[in-house]
Amino acid sequence: MDTVSQALLRELQDRQDIEECVSRYAHGLDRHDEALIADVYHPDAKDWHGPFAGAIPEFVTWVNALHERKTRAHTHNITTHWCELQGDRAFADSYVIFVLYLRERDVVMMGSGRYIDRLERRAGHWKIAERRTIIDMRLEAEAQPLASTPGGYPSGTWDRTDIAYVPPLTLRQPAPRDERADELLAKCAARRAIKDCIVQSVRGLDRADRPLTLDQYASGALVEDGVFRGPVERHTDLLLTRFEQEDIAITHNLTSHLVEIRGAAATAETYLTLMRFSKDGATGWVGGLRLLDRLEQRDGRWRIAKRRIVADYELAADGSAVNTDAQYLRSRRDGADISYDRR
Amino acid sequence: MTDADFADLAKPADLVHLAALQRLADKDAIRECVHRYARGIDRHDEEILRSVFHADAVDNHGSVTLGRDAFVTWANEWHVNVSTHHMHGMTTHISDIAGDEANAITYVLFTLCRKDGKTVHTGGGRYVDRLARRDGDWRITHRRLVIDWRMNASAPTAKHLAQHAQGTWDTTDPSYDPT
């Protein structure tokens, strides 16, 4: 394997490791597993988490006690994820849909936030060196007790009886396979580049960063969104104006993602959970959409040539939406958002 | 690959790189397999759904434990009975590979539009999967589903998305049209 391929492989591994590090945090947190949570941070890391600011051993105790006191169950769903590598340092912006089934009321609180992380590779392991947590909005809806519908689904637990603790596998070195290494590497790189392109297209909308969004599209790219059919520049301007006028907060959370590549062309289907907290009466709204993208690779760069948007559901959290806790950091829709910070 | 390339592969450093590349590709294939499930179930596409499981796979959906083909039929019928539209959004994902076997945990946010047109049901769960690679293909051999929370919200009275194409449960869905 030549030096260029080795560097590409290293970069793809770094990105995969970093995304999984953020996911492992969510898994550890939702199981109240102190060791798992602590393991995603370096020993000297700091977490700025609303009312808590400080070192990790104290953070772990604080965060578990908070969830135990306030909730019956919770999940932290990592959605849109972006990371930028700088040697042994990395900066990541990971969206989270956090859902708390409250203990005191029959209410499920669904919120949208972001983890802004500085990660470092030490002794070959990527872990968080500094984390800042943002909360954009919280919505509320009536909880449906898990026991009220037949089905016999197991619920989560906060200890090692949870079924996610499957018997560990015996580690064996995977045998290298005979698929051509250069082709396999190129395929992995293209899949990562396409996903990153789609992620950046929606991050630009959330930060009102027009150049970032437009940079993900090929020239002459078209968008079909409801009754809108036209160039991406006009579509982006319409969306940014609407969000600015109507919303206090907006987050584009990407979930299920599939891509099919044929040479220098690709199609992708990406689910979008769009969460809006509007100025008009402070109501919450969640939309379930799909981005159907046709992408092209030109001069080594993947870009979106056409985007169609399909809608599957929308829900309102009527009158029960609540704005965010003042103790948490807030998003900004400009370059002063902390995700642009590279210190 | 040329013969010279193969000669290079004999070097220990290259074996390490190949193993790393294989692990990268395997983890990507496992994530892809789990995400393909969402597409299969949301489009009621039996072919896609079957492609997620090995033929002898077992799925534990609560008290319902079924083999692959019976599960596919049951799951589609169940969704038709309780909803008009639904989405399964895959989020937090971790995988752990050892040779040709793997464990994976994938969080799901599922949303069902109820037939009354007024209620939208959303829940959070986790798929706890055992996967195996057979003939180069990563698929699920055993799946268990945990449900962590559920809520009922209302469909908005003023619909923002009324003018959008809506998903369907057949190949007329826009995602089957490559343009």
Report on the architecture of this protein.
The complex is a heterodimer of chains A (343) and B (179). By secondary structure, chain A is an alpha+beta fold. Chain A has two domains: 146 residues, Nuclear Transport Factor 2, Chain: A; 147 residues, Nuclear Transport Factor 2, Chain: A (Roll). In chain A, 28% of the residues lie in helices and 45% in strands. Chain A has six helices and twelve strands. In chain A, the strands form two sheets. In chain A, strands 2-1-6-5-4-3 form a six-stranded mixed sheet, sandwiched between helices. A six-stranded mixed sheet of chain A has the order 8-7-12-11-10-9. Chain B is α+β, with helices and mostly antiparallel strands. Chain B is built from four helices and six strands. The longest helix of chain B has 32 residues. Chain B is elongated, with a radius of gyration of 20 Å. The two termini of chain B are 35 Å apart. The mean pLDDT of chain B is 90. The interface between A and B is large, with 94 and 86 residues.
Helix segment count of chain A?
6
CATH class of chain B: Alpha Beta
Contiguous low-pLDDT stretches of chain B (5 residues minimum) are none
Q: In which range does the helix fraction of chain A lie? A: 25-40%
Q: What Rg of chain A is obtained from the alpha carbons, in whole angstroms?
A: 21 Å
Kindly state the number of beta strands of chain B: 6
Distance linking N and C termini of chain A: 34 Å
Quick rundown:
Chain A is of the alpha+beta class and 343 residues long. Chain A has helices spanning 3-30, 34-39, 56-70, 181-206, 210-214, 232-246; strands at 41-49, 52-55, 71-86, 89-102, 107-122, 125-143, 217-225, 228-231, 247-262, 265-278, 284-298, 301-317. Chain A folds into two domains: 3-148, Nuclear Transport Factor 2, Chain: A (Roll), CATH 3.10.450.50; 192-338, Nuclear Transport Factor 2, Chain: A, CATH 3.10.450.50.
